[in-house]
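task queued by scheduler; priority normal; single chain, no ligands, no partner chains; default sampling; output format set to structure tokens
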Amino acid sequence: MQSNHLFLEEPIRMASILEPSKARFFAAMTKIVGTLGPKSQSIETLSACLEAGMSVARFDFSWGDAAYHQVTLNNLKMAVKSTKKLCAVMLDTVGPELQVVNTVETSISLKQDDTVILTPFQGQVATPELLPINFDGLAKAVKVGDTIFVGKYLFTGSEITSVWLEVKSVDKDDVACTVKNTATLTGALFTLHACQVRIEMPTLSDIDKEVISTWGAQNKIDFLSLSFTRHAEDVREARDFLSKLGDLNQTQIFAKIENIEGLTHFDEILQEADGIIFSRGDLGIDIGPEKVFLFQKESLNKCNMAGKPAVVTRVVDSMTDNLRPTRAEATDVANAVLDGSDAILLGAETFRGLYPVETISTVGKICAEAEKVFNQEMYFKKTVRFVREPMTHLESISSSAVRAAIKVKASVIICFTSTGKAARLIAKYRPTMPILSVVIPRLKTNQLHWSFSGAFEARQSLVVRGLFPMLADPRHPAESHTVTNESVLKVALDHGKASGVIKSRDRVVICQKLGDDSVVKIIELED
């Protein structure tokens, strides 16, 4: 493991800490993924979330049905239209998630040192002595001394709504456990997590496939968050399934690393996936909490070098019920940015939290402050060393665009692209200025009808740090000549000026393709 993961630029002027943060059109270069639920379903709240900086909306199908999520998505579309803020859609699968079934939804109080039995659900009523679960193989998977956590919202170590169990004995299909802390479980379903235990259930369940092929296909989801990814084969199977669902063959797959098995096979998973989500809630249970930061730093570094987006979860849990994060949480957000995270994923904070908009705004402000002291020069040199020579043509052009932008102190990099690949490569080098990705649609056909590409590519940029997309007029191809290029460039510059990113006499670096040649050029705007 390399030692220079914390890219902190020095020296920091202490006086700058006392300066108030300045408002910007882009809340931060680091993106924010918000999980939508009861507290963030209204058009008014969703509009405020978009204005505050949310760029990806996550729909968690471990809670709620397709009809409920469709109402939320329809409201989101109206919010996008009213705010004129793009937002991508992420579907989060249930995966091999174990659950306690509480059909009568009565509160279940468990006392420390008491014994509780976990047993396969067959219509039993959940009680403090008996917890029915949705899996009949737990007794075969665990052994005496194993740790099991049960709770409505994942165990954090402080919630009184989650319980820590230790396996006491196994008898046929039943698992007897000793309760390690007093807690009260409420609601219809509680998540159950068995630490470092292999659960023989498919990563993509039949229920997941049904949701993806109906709700997902109908809404042309941009991202699939593949819960409990354990092997590269999980990603390959999911991609094969998506390839048979029309437009979903363009959906990007983000592998969600949640347990020791996914951690063990991380390198091969990274190779197959389009991005990675570090689910620190479950992962912090499966490995010791003192090891989580080590995994975060090393794996984020690997994602950065591979040029694949990395998303960090569970950063401001306390804002679910409070208007301000703890000092440790604020520092954690900043460190995630300095470690190289592309996006911060908010779960309960926006799903059921009392302050979804304020949480997004606060996290955005912390990210923006951390970005100011991110040592881009050190990071750039490190990335170039990792890529080595000879670079590919596109990698060379992308790194050159960033180097030029830094040297001339450009206010923005404008990249013309059809697939989004060139823009993502530029973002890989973490320039200090925003990258305006001008996505040029391409005409395509399935032999039955014609359509334009581009919408997927534009929205999928919304999870990449520093990348801000706009969809160009399809009459202007990405590989065109002077007249049309100048026309598209004017639209991009006008958009930048309207956004407050570009001002008179600013320098702008442009990366585009002219015929068969890729070109990086610098322009200086007139008054």
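post-processing summary
- The CA atoms of residues 207 and 291 lie 33 Å apart.
- Residues 1-5, 480-484 have pLDDT under 50 and may be disordered.
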